Amino acid sequence: MRVLRFDSVQRTAHWANATLFAILMLTALPLYFASIERLVGRHVLIAEIHVWAGVALPIPVLVSLIGPWGARMRQDVRRINRWTEEELRWVLSFGRGHRLMFDKFNPGQKLNAIFVAASIVIMLGTGSILKWFNLFPVSWRTGATFVHDVMTWVIFFAVLGHIALALSHPASLRSMLRGWVTEDWAEQHAPRWLEELGKTGLTQRDPRSDPDTAR
Amino acid sequence: MSEPGGQVAVGRRVFLGLIGLGAAGVVLGAGAQQKIGRVLGSGLASLLPGGDRFQIYSVSDSFPSISPDSYRLSVSGLVERPVTLTLADLEAMPSVSLVRTFQCVTGWRVPGVHWQGVRLGDVLDAVEVKPTAVALAFDSYDGVDTESLTLDQARLPDVIIAYSMLGGPIASEHGGPVRLYVAPMFGYKSLKWLSAIRVVDTVEPGYWEQNGYPANGWLDGSTSPRA
């Protein structure tokens, strides 16, 4: 039995967001490292691409949240926001301690989502100060450079970790590509979510009634 | 702290907390960075993320590569004696040394950068500027970048034609073998790969000025032509 984990709106938003992150990270390399800049040149074009990909960065998440198509996205954002005391204890003990009844997302996945959302705001904010610098005092520009640089490093490691985890968990990766997970998977990795679905009797447990998973 | 059902709004708190941290970094980061630089020394601090480091800008597709032997600087325009100077000619002139913080208009800065070169004013004296002259136009070997200074600005004692930076010959990504260093202004005024100085009767806006940067980019934020 298949269970819908991400609808097409969420998957589109995820991959659009991932594409923008990839463009930003690739164009950041020559902007950050003179040795790479020497190899690729075209500084002005690369800087321009970086800036406009940055300006577009919040669009996928925002568009997926608003409007009638965003119900599932909004529901998941609420899930990511609300933590039980157990989840909090679990993450504070770095995943050791007692066995946790996982929600649709485990606390690590929730933290990743929160971090990505905050990075979008921070990178867009500091990037705007660097781009439209004449609106801000020089010390803010220096501070914005500092924050933008530090966050760049954190984001690189977070994204590489995210990709490594996705590749080592094919069932999770497939749910971001095709939408569904098996009921067995959900029972093992997200039992609280599965239980919730059972209680509310959502039809989406049956893939044939859901256009997203019927293919 | 708890919400109904023993749930806590951790997401919102962490999200807003991270953004708050980012905002604090913008407002206080300049000071924090300076302290880190003082404690670790600029060399070590430059290896850290967000540390003091040059960001390399080039406005053309690649760094021009000019050997020190083939380097030529032409000085022409409204002058009595136009000249073409070699690197050796420049090195033979009286030199000045400066140690300054290199400050980009977009915010990044590198403290304690050592410079050596020839006062631009000395070169102007040697070629004898005509009375009708008002400003200088600078060209770069990259074929794209240009800059301008008024004659008064050009004669400031800390405006130099630099052939040494960071204690050695200027690396090609820093604009070597010879670049302009306009110490009292933001970095974009210090044109890299200097190829020509033309003495002219009007201020010709340079590459960055045509892209919206002020012609008079004083480090204190003033944009008046005062020298």
Write a concise synopsis of the structure shown:
Chain A has 215 residues and is mainly α. Helices cover 71% and strands 4% of the residues of chain A. In chain A, α1 (8-32) packs across α2 (34-40) and α7 (107-131) packs antiparallel against α8 (138-168).
Protein architecture, described:
- Chain A contains 11 helices and 3 strands, in the order βαααααβααααβαα.
- Chain A is mainly α and 215 residues long.
- Chain A has a single domain, classed as Transmembrane di-heme cytochromes, Chain C (Fumarate Reductase Cytochrome B subunit, Up-down Bundle).
- Chain A has a two-stranded antiparallel ribbon.
- Chain A is elongated.
- By secondary structure, chain B is an alpha+beta fold.
- Chain B folds into 2 domains: 53 residues, no CATH class; 143 residues, Sulfite Oxidase, Chain A, domain 2, CATH 3.90.420.10.
- Chain B is 25% helix and 28% strand.
- Chain B has a 5-stranded mixed β-sheet. In chain B, strands 4, 5, 8, 9 and 10 form a 5-stranded antiparallel β-sheet that branches.
- In chain B, a hairpin with a 5-residue loop joins β6 and β7.
- The longest helix of chain B is centred in the N-terminal third of the chain and has 31 residues.
- The radius of gyration of chain B is 22 Å and the shape is elongated.
- The N and C termini of chain B lie far apart (60 Å).
- Chains A and B meet through α2, α5, β2, α6 and α7 of A and β1 and α1 of B.
- β2 of chain A pairs antiparallel with β1 of chain B.
Look at the structure and give the CATH class of chain A: Mainly Alpha
Q: Tell me the greatest interface.
A: A-B, 49 and 46 residues
| Overall tally of structural domains of chain A | 1
- The run of helices and strands of chain B is EHHEEHEEHEEHEEEEH
